[in-house]
Amino acid sequence: MDITCERRGEDVVAFIRGEIDHHNAKNARDSLDSIIDESKPTTFSLDLSGVTFCDSSGLGLVMGRMRKCCSVGSVLCIQNPSSAALRILEIAGMDKILKIERGV
Amino acid sequence: MQDKVINTMKLEFTARSVNESLARSAVSAFAAQADPSIAVIADIKTVVSEAVTNSIVHGYAGVEDKSLCPIYIHCKLYESSRLVVRLKDRGCGIEDICMAMQPLFTTDTDGERSGMGFTIMQTFTDGFKVRSEPGKGTTVVLEKRLKR
Fold first, then answer.
1. Which residues of chain A have a CB within 8 Å of the CB of B56?
2. DSSP collapsed to 3 states, B46-74
Protein backbone atom coordinates (compact mmCIF):
# COMPACT_ATOMS: atom_id res chain seq x y z
CA MET A 1 0.00 0.00 0.00
CA ASP A 2 1.20 3.48 -0.80
CA ILE A 3 0.03 6.77 0.74
CA THR A 4 0.82 10.24 -0.57
CA CYS A 5 -0.71 13.56 0.43
CA GLU A 6 -1.39 16.91 -1.12
CA ARG A 7 -2.12 20.23 0.60
CA ARG A 8 -4.90 22.30 -0.97
CA GLY A 9 -5.13 25.54 1.00
CA GLU A 10 -6.58 24.68 4.42
CA ASP A 11 -7.45 21.17 3.28
CA VAL A 12 -5.41 18.00 2.81
CA VAL A 13 -6.04 15.06 0.50
CA ALA A 14 -4.39 11.70 1.23
CA PHE A 15 -4.25 9.25 -1.69
CA ILE A 16 -4.30 5.56 -0.75
CA ARG A 17 -3.24 3.10 -3.43
CA GLY A 18 -3.17 -0.69 -3.24
CA GLU A 19 -4.76 -3.21 -0.86
CA ILE A 20 -6.17 -2.37 2.57
CA ASP A 21 -6.24 -5.36 4.90
CA HIS A 22 -5.42 -6.04 8.55
CA HIS A 23 -1.72 -6.57 7.68
CA ASN A 24 -1.13 -3.08 6.33
CA ALA A 25 -3.91 -1.11 8.09
CA LYS A 26 -1.74 -0.30 11.11
CA ASN A 27 0.97 1.39 9.03
CA ALA A 28 -1.72 3.26 7.12
CA ARG A 29 -3.29 4.40 10.39
CA ASP A 30 0.05 5.70 11.71
CA SER A 31 0.84 7.52 8.45
CA LEU A 32 -2.59 9.13 8.20
CA ASP A 33 -2.62 10.18 11.86
CA SER A 34 0.79 11.84 11.41
CA ILE A 35 -0.54 13.77 8.43
CA ILE A 36 -3.65 14.86 10.39
CA ASP A 37 -1.62 15.85 13.48
CA GLU A 38 0.92 17.84 11.48
CA SER A 39 -1.50 19.63 9.16
CA LYS A 40 -4.74 19.91 11.21
CA PRO A 41 -6.70 20.58 8.01
CA THR A 42 -10.21 22.00 7.81
CA THR A 43 -11.19 19.04 5.64
CA PHE A 44 -9.15 15.84 5.51
CA SER A 45 -10.02 13.86 2.40
CA LEU A 46 -9.16 10.24 1.76
CA ASP A 47 -8.92 9.59 -1.97
CA LEU A 48 -9.70 5.88 -2.37
CA SER A 49 -9.68 5.73 -6.17
CA GLY A 50 -6.50 3.61 -6.14
CA VAL A 51 -7.75 1.02 -3.62
CA THR A 52 -7.71 -2.39 -5.31
CA PHE A 53 -8.82 -4.47 -2.32
CA CYS A 54 -10.56 -3.54 0.91
CA ASP A 55 -12.01 -5.64 3.73
CA SER A 56 -13.40 -4.66 7.14
CA SER A 57 -9.92 -3.45 8.15
CA GLY A 58 -10.43 -0.63 5.65
CA LEU A 59 -13.73 0.13 7.33
CA GLY A 60 -11.95 0.26 10.71
CA LEU A 61 -9.34 2.54 9.17
CA VAL A 62 -11.99 4.99 7.92
CA MET A 63 -13.99 4.88 11.20
CA GLY A 64 -10.81 5.50 13.19
CA ARG A 65 -9.81 8.45 11.00
CA MET A 66 -13.29 9.89 11.42
CA ARG A 67 -12.72 9.88 15.20
CA LYS A 68 -9.19 11.23 14.77
CA CYS A 69 -10.43 14.11 12.58
CA CYS A 70 -13.13 14.95 15.13
CA SER A 71 -10.49 15.09 17.88
CA VAL A 72 -8.48 17.79 16.06
CA GLY A 73 -11.49 19.72 14.69
CA SER A 74 -11.21 18.48 11.11
CA VAL A 75 -13.92 17.02 8.90
CA LEU A 76 -13.31 13.71 7.12
CA CYS A 77 -14.38 13.32 3.52
CA ILE A 78 -14.07 10.34 1.17
CA GLN A 79 -13.12 11.05 -2.44
CA ASN A 80 -13.53 8.92 -5.54
CA PRO A 81 -13.93 5.54 -3.81
CA SER A 82 -13.12 2.55 -6.04
CA SER A 83 -15.78 -0.17 -6.25
CA ALA A 84 -13.67 -2.31 -3.87
CA ALA A 85 -13.73 0.44 -1.23
CA LEU A 86 -17.30 1.63 -1.78
CA ARG A 87 -19.00 -1.75 -1.33
CA ILE A 88 -17.35 -2.14 2.09
CA LEU A 89 -18.31 1.40 3.15
CA GLU A 90 -21.88 0.80 1.99
CA ILE A 91 -22.26 -2.43 3.96
CA ALA A 92 -21.70 -0.52 7.22
CA GLY A 93 -23.80 2.45 6.10
CA MET A 94 -20.74 4.71 6.13
CA ASP A 95 -21.86 6.19 2.82
CA LYS A 96 -24.81 7.69 4.76
CA ILE A 97 -22.66 9.17 7.52
CA LEU A 98 -19.67 10.43 5.58
CA LYS A 99 -19.46 12.98 2.82
CA ILE A 100 -18.48 11.12 -0.35
CA GLU A 101 -17.28 13.15 -3.31
CA ARG A 102 -16.93 11.71 -6.79
CA GLY A 103 -15.17 13.08 -9.86
CA VAL A 104 -12.90 15.33 -7.78
CA MET B 1 -28.66 -35.75 -8.28
CA GLN B 2 -25.51 -35.65 -6.19
CA ASP B 3 -23.24 -32.68 -6.72
CA LYS B 4 -19.80 -34.20 -7.37
CA VAL B 5 -16.53 -32.69 -6.13
CA ILE B 6 -14.36 -32.03 -9.18
CA ASN B 7 -11.33 -30.42 -7.55
CA THR B 8 -9.88 -29.78 -4.09
CA MET B 9 -7.12 -27.69 -2.53
CA LYS B 10 -5.58 -27.74 0.96
CA LEU B 11 -3.52 -24.94 2.36
CA GLU B 12 -1.82 -24.64 5.76
CA PHE B 13 0.05 -21.57 6.99
CA THR B 14 0.93 -19.83 10.21
CA ALA B 15 -1.26 -17.07 11.65
CA ARG B 16 0.88 -14.17 10.49
CA SER B 17 -0.90 -11.17 9.03
CA VAL B 18 1.36 -11.23 5.96
CA ASN B 19 -0.39 -14.50 5.02
CA GLU B 20 -3.80 -12.80 4.67
CA SER B 21 -3.02 -11.82 1.07
CA LEU B 22 -1.53 -15.27 0.39
CA ALA B 23 -4.75 -16.96 1.54
CA ARG B 24 -7.14 -14.76 -0.47
CA SER B 25 -4.94 -14.97 -3.59
CA ALA B 26 -4.67 -18.77 -3.37
CA VAL B 27 -8.41 -19.33 -2.90
CA SER B 28 -9.38 -16.88 -5.63
CA ALA B 29 -6.86 -18.51 -8.00
CA PHE B 30 -8.43 -21.90 -7.20
CA ALA B 31 -11.92 -20.49 -7.85
CA ALA B 32 -10.79 -18.90 -11.15
CA GLN B 33 -10.84 -22.29 -12.91
CA ALA B 34 -14.66 -22.11 -12.92
CA ASP B 35 -14.42 -18.77 -14.75
CA PRO B 36 -16.44 -16.65 -12.29
CA SER B 37 -17.07 -12.94 -12.80
CA ILE B 38 -14.67 -10.34 -11.38
CA ALA B 39 -17.35 -9.42 -8.81
CA VAL B 40 -17.53 -13.01 -7.56
CA ILE B 41 -13.73 -13.20 -7.30
CA ALA B 42 -13.79 -9.93 -5.31
CA ASP B 43 -16.38 -11.45 -2.92
CA ILE B 44 -14.24 -14.57 -2.41
CA LYS B 45 -11.10 -12.54 -1.73
CA THR B 46 -12.96 -10.41 0.80
CA VAL B 47 -14.57 -13.24 2.78
CA VAL B 48 -11.36 -15.30 2.92
CA SER B 49 -9.46 -12.24 4.12
CA GLU B 50 -12.09 -11.65 6.83
CA ALA B 51 -11.99 -15.26 8.04
CA VAL B 52 -8.17 -15.40 8.16
CA THR B 53 -8.01 -12.03 9.93
CA ASN B 54 -10.50 -13.26 12.55
CA SER B 55 -8.31 -16.29 13.27
CA ILE B 56 -5.19 -14.12 13.62
CA VAL B 57 -6.75 -11.27 15.62
CA HIS B 58 -9.24 -13.17 17.79
CA GLY B 59 -8.52 -16.92 17.57
CA TYR B 60 -4.84 -16.58 18.36
CA ALA B 61 -5.08 -13.34 20.36
CA GLY B 62 -2.23 -13.03 22.84
CA VAL B 63 -0.17 -15.93 21.46
CA GLU B 64 3.36 -14.62 20.97
CA ASP B 65 4.88 -17.50 19.03
CA LYS B 66 2.82 -17.50 15.86
CA SER B 67 4.73 -20.53 14.54
CA LEU B 68 2.51 -22.56 16.90
CA CYS B 69 -0.65 -21.08 15.38
CA PRO B 70 -1.77 -22.92 12.25
CA ILE B 71 -4.61 -21.96 9.95
CA TYR B 72 -6.01 -24.60 7.61
CA ILE B 73 -8.00 -23.95 4.47
CA HIS B 74 -9.72 -26.72 2.56
CA CYS B 75 -11.45 -25.78 -0.71
CA LYS B 76 -13.80 -27.97 -2.69
CA LEU B 77 -15.11 -27.13 -6.13
CA TYR B 78 -18.30 -28.95 -7.15
CA GLU B 79 -19.57 -29.88 -10.59
CA SER B 80 -22.35 -27.31 -10.20
CA SER B 81 -19.67 -24.55 -9.88
CA ARG B 82 -20.25 -24.31 -6.13
CA LEU B 83 -17.15 -23.45 -4.10
CA VAL B 84 -16.96 -24.50 -0.45
CA VAL B 85 -14.13 -23.07 1.66
CA ARG B 86 -13.56 -24.52 5.14
CA LEU B 87 -11.23 -22.42 7.26
CA LYS B 88 -10.10 -23.77 10.61
CA ASP B 89 -7.90 -22.55 13.46
CA ARG B 90 -6.87 -24.12 16.76
CA GLY B 91 -7.27 -20.88 18.67
CA CYS B 92 -9.25 -19.88 21.76
CA GLY B 93 -12.66 -20.31 20.13
CA ILE B 94 -15.72 -18.08 20.43
CA GLU B 95 -17.69 -18.01 23.65
CA ASP B 96 -20.90 -16.53 22.25
CA ILE B 97 -21.28 -16.98 18.49
CA CYS B 98 -24.60 -15.08 18.34
CA MET B 99 -22.99 -12.05 19.96
CA ALA B 100 -19.93 -12.29 17.69
CA MET B 101 -22.25 -12.27 14.64
CA GLN B 102 -23.84 -8.95 15.63
CA PRO B 103 -22.83 -6.13 13.28
CA LEU B 104 -20.25 -3.78 14.85
CA PHE B 105 -19.56 -6.16 17.76
CA THR B 106 -15.84 -6.55 18.48
CA THR B 107 -13.69 -7.57 21.42
CA ASP B 108 -10.67 -5.80 19.92
CA THR B 109 -11.52 -2.14 20.41
CA ASP B 110 -7.86 -0.99 20.64
CA GLY B 111 -6.99 -2.43 17.25
CA GLU B 112 -9.65 -0.41 15.38
CA ARG B 113 -11.55 -3.52 14.31
CA SER B 114 -14.90 -2.54 12.86
CA GLY B 115 -16.81 -5.60 14.09
CA MET B 116 -18.17 -6.19 10.59
CA GLY B 117 -16.20 -9.31 9.67
CA PHE B 118 -19.00 -11.86 10.12
CA THR B 119 -21.57 -9.51 8.55
CA ILE B 120 -19.37 -9.19 5.46
CA MET B 121 -18.88 -12.97 5.31
CA GLN B 122 -22.65 -13.49 5.48
CA THR B 123 -23.39 -10.80 2.90
CA PHE B 124 -20.83 -11.86 0.29
CA THR B 125 -21.49 -15.62 0.35
CA ASP B 126 -24.39 -17.93 -0.54
CA GLY B 127 -23.86 -20.02 2.58
CA PHE B 128 -22.06 -19.39 5.83
CA LYS B 129 -21.57 -21.45 9.01
CA VAL B 130 -19.47 -21.02 12.14
CA ARG B 131 -18.61 -23.83 14.54
CA SER B 132 -16.68 -22.94 17.66
CA GLU B 133 -16.19 -23.84 21.28
CA PRO B 134 -14.04 -22.07 23.87
CA GLY B 135 -10.57 -23.64 23.88
CA LYS B 136 -11.27 -25.78 20.83
CA GLY B 137 -10.76 -23.42 17.93
CA THR B 138 -13.10 -22.16 15.25
CA THR B 139 -14.20 -23.49 11.87
CA VAL B 140 -15.85 -21.22 9.33
CA VAL B 141 -17.50 -22.70 6.24
CA LEU B 142 -18.08 -20.34 3.32
CA GLU B 143 -20.06 -21.31 0.26
CA LYS B 144 -20.19 -19.37 -2.99
CA ARG B 145 -21.86 -20.10 -6.31
CA LEU B 146 -19.25 -19.25 -8.95
CA LYS B 147 -21.77 -19.23 -11.79
CA ARG B 148 -25.46 -18.41 -11.77
1. 22
2. HHHHHHHHHHHHHHCCCCCCHHHCEEEEE
Q: State which CATH number among 3.50.50.60, 3.90.1150.10, 3.40.50.720, 3.30.750.24 fits the domain covering A2-101.
A: 3.30.750.24
CB contact under 8 A, A88 and B120: yes
Q: Note whether B116 contacts A84, CB cutoff 8 Å.
A: no
User: Count of domains in chain B?
Assistant: 1
Q: Which residues of A touch B57 (CB under 8 A)?
A: 22
- Of residues A57, A87, A91, nearest to B53 (C-beta): A57
Q: How confident is the model over A33-63, as pLDDT tens digits?
A: 999 999 999 999 999 999 999 999 999 999 9
Q: Structure pTM?
A: 0.93
Provide the residue type at B92 as one letter.
Answer: C
State ipTM.
0.91
